[in-house]
Structures are given as C-alpha cells and as structure tokens.
Amino acid sequence: METRTTIQCQSQQKHFPFPINVPNAAPFLSLPFCRLPFKAGTFKVERGTLNQFTDFRITNKPYLNVEIRKVAFEHEFWTLAVTIAQKVEQVYIKVTPTELLVSCSTGANERHLSQYAYHTVCRLIERHKGSGFYDYYWPDLGSGALQKKFLKLLKSKTGLEVLSRDHLQGLFKPGQFLPKIEQDTIEIQNAWNIEQKKLNYIPEKIISYNLLATPFYHWETDNHYPFLMPYQGILDTDKTDVNSFSQHNFDSTEPTPTNNLTLEEKQLNEICSSMRTIAPIKTPYNELFHLSQAEIRQVNLANFKALLKLWKLAFPLLHHQRHTYNTYTVSMRPTRNKSTPCNFNNQQAELCILRKEHPHHYSLSLLISIQGKIHQLPNHFEPTFFVATAENPKEYYLLNSVTDCSVLAFFEETDYKLLILKLHYDMYFKLFEDQLRERYKFISRK
C-alpha cells in the first residue's frame, strides 16, 4: 500500500560547508566530503548515483573482500574502519534527510570517492536494501546530553551499535515518511438483522470463513492483501471447535452434495471470489513488468481501496459467523498448521491519539475507542484493514478508511508510540500533527 507522503520542512536544510569550525571538533570534520543524494522519498543511494563519483566498480572475479567495522559515532558522523587487502583506512559517513556525506582518510575529495569509500558505500547498499541508510541517521543526537538521554552506544568486538534506549523507542527522524491524511471515510454498514445461522446440513460438518493473510516482509511467498476464503470443516467430538479443514472453496458459490448454502453464505462467497482476484500485490517482476513503479503503486492502491470496500460489505455478514479463523498463507493458499480462531466485530472502532509533553520531547500514542471506551492496541499485530484491542487481540474491528489503515500501519512500526524531539517539532512535525488533529480525537496529558 503506497499512501504515504513526506511533510516538507518549513526552512532550508542545514548545509555544512567544510571545513567545519567546531570547538574540540574531531579531525575528520576538516576533510572534504562527497554528497550522494538519496532516491526521492527514501534514505537509499542508487548505484547509478554512486558510480558518478568514481571510476571504481564492483567485480565478481577476482572477488574483493571488504571488511567494515563501526568504531565511533560523534557529531552525527560515523567512523568506519574498512579493511581491503589487509590494509585499513577510515571512512566517514553522515546521513541527512536528503543525502549521504562520505569521506575517507585517504584519496577522497568533494567530487571523487576513494576506493575505500566506494566499496564501503557499495557494501552498505547491499546490506541495507530495505531501509537504506536510515539506521545510521540520528539527527541532533551526535553528542551531548540529548544523546545520553535518548541513545545507548554499545561497543563490542564486532563494532559499535547505536540504539534508542528501551523506554524511549519510536523516535521520529526528520525526513522520514509520514502518512497522507485525507477525509476519506467509508461509511460503516449498519449491522444487518441476520438471524443466527440454522443448521440445515450435517451438524459435524460446517461452512465458515478464513481470513487469509501473510506478513508483507515474508520473502518466501507471494505478498497479498488480506482476503476472505470460505472453507468446509469437520468439528471435533464436542462440536465446539474445528478439528480439520476438509476443503477450501476458491470460487464456487454452489452447494456441495452435503451442504446447502444460506443466502448470507452465498453473498459472502461472492465477495470472497471478488477479493481473491484483486488481493495479490503487484510488482515489476510479475505481469506488470511493462509499467513504471509509480504506475504499479497506483494499481496496488486502487486494489487496496476496492478490497476495503469489499470488507465493508463482508463484515456485517461475518458478525454472526462461528468458527472463523485467521490463517497464514504460502502463495496465497492457506497453511493448515498456522490457523488461529478469530472473531469479526461490526461495531465501529475509532482511532484516537494520546499526547504527552516531556522536558525534551513530545509523545504520541495511538489508541482506539469502541463505544466510548479507550483501549490500547496489541503488540505484534498485523493491521492492514483491521484493528483489535490489547485485551482481546483476536477480535477484529474494521477500519473506516484508507487513511486509518495508513495511520495504523505507520504507528505500528514503532509499537504505536512516536517520540518527537522538541527541537524538531516546529520545523518537521507540527504540520503533520495539525492534520491528525483535524481527523482524530486527541487526549492531552502532561
């Protein structure tokens, strides 16, 4: 789902002419630095950009062994000890919202990367394909009291790690993606007056529904948005739980020899069939290879919106269904050993935000309101179209809009709590918070 944008800062980005005159500055600050611009909207350096600054290239034969060890972090610059052919040089990098600054203890200038600098950036690009240089980015926390308060620097034989302190996780960094806030609520369907389902088939065999989902980061299978699939199952001896799934119906809405579908089941099965058609997430590597990445994002966004509307139609019908499950998939097919019972609740759930002020930062915590009662969100929950409470994480409520889905996914990345340094708030975050206030209820506490 691509529904994110970047809030532009309200003043020019800080630039650092070199040399930098800082009291007690580290010697490397007087070195010349190359500026490698990031791909728009990311913290990634593209290989083509990198190659413009050097004549060096990666070769497979002979293979060049490059060892990189992080040895220091000060003034927002990383010092990396880089070993090539048993010779060690220092490479220095700094991450800004828009570019990567790179220098080396030997052979570098503002327009040319040394062999050590080039191979270091190449290896880091490969090592961090997903996040780029984001994990090296700690703006305004390069030294001093704020660094001690918010970060922990862990030294070991393998190098240096910089992490947020355990009680201060979820730090906002200027330039990171922020969800696009729109007034796009899809009206909740009123709960239909559906009578409890009457058994008009063999009582040991039931028809119900599986929510099929897989984490988007699962690399072994085709990614898809959550969709619904009907199944036939056999109950246990107590007739309370499903002992086995005898069949998953992919398309058919016709009754089986032993089971007659109710009107609601026929409607649900038709919705399931429509969902399955548009659930796969498109990539340049499948049938859309002829489209640009921007065009593929638009296709995926259109399918995401259409799926949410189908879920709006399905939820009132699911509200009284028994024996519903959440099942992980492989290649869009359910895995028998990864099913957990779940329920679908058609009551309306509203996102809300708890805001607290602290001496050096603000915190925003995402909560949900159901019938006027505020609930915390569960950990390790795959949200997408749904939300649940920490007290009952297997009871799913449907979100009201694509914006709700985007906001929930954004906060889920930081365990539903976001910290904003006060020195970053006015320039980088206030506009976004104002947009949130127009859409969601805020609860303020000191």
Strand order of the largest sheet: 2-6-5-4-3
> Which residues sit in consecutive blocks of at least 5 with pLDDT less than 50?
2-24, 190-201, 217-221
| Residues in helices, as a percent range | 10-25%
- Tally of separate helices: 7
Structure class: alpha+beta
- How many separate domains? 3
DSSP E strands, number: 22
Query: How much of the sequence is in beta strands?
Result: 25-35%
Shape, please?
globular
Largest sheet: 5 strands, antiparallel
Distance between the termini: 35 Å
User: SSE order in H/E notation?
Assistant: EEHEEEEHHEEEEEEHHEEEEEEEEHEHE
**Average pLDDT:** 84
**Rg from Cα:** 26 Å
Overall description:
The model is unreliable at 2-24, 190-201 and 217-221 (pLDDT under 50). The chain is globular. It has helices at 47-51, 115-127, 144-150, 263-278, 293-318, 402-412, 422-439, and strands at 4-5, 34-37, 66-74, 77-84, 87-95, 99-104, 151-156, 159-164, 178-179, 205-213, 227-235, 242-248, 325-330, 333-341, 343-345, 349-357, 361-370, 373-375, 386-387, 395-398, 417-421, 441-445. The strands form 6 sheets. It has a 5-stranded antiparallel beta sheet with strand order 2-6-5-4-3. Strands 12-11-10-13-14 form a 5-stranded mixed beta sheet. Strands 16, 17, 18, 21 and 22 form a 5-stranded mixed beta sheet that branches. The protein has 446 residues and is of the alpha+beta class. It folds into 3 domains: 17-164, no CATH class; 178-183 and 348-445, no CATH class; 205-342, no CATH class. α4 runs antiparallel to α5. Helices cover 22% and strands 30% of the residues. The protein has 7 helices and 22 strands.
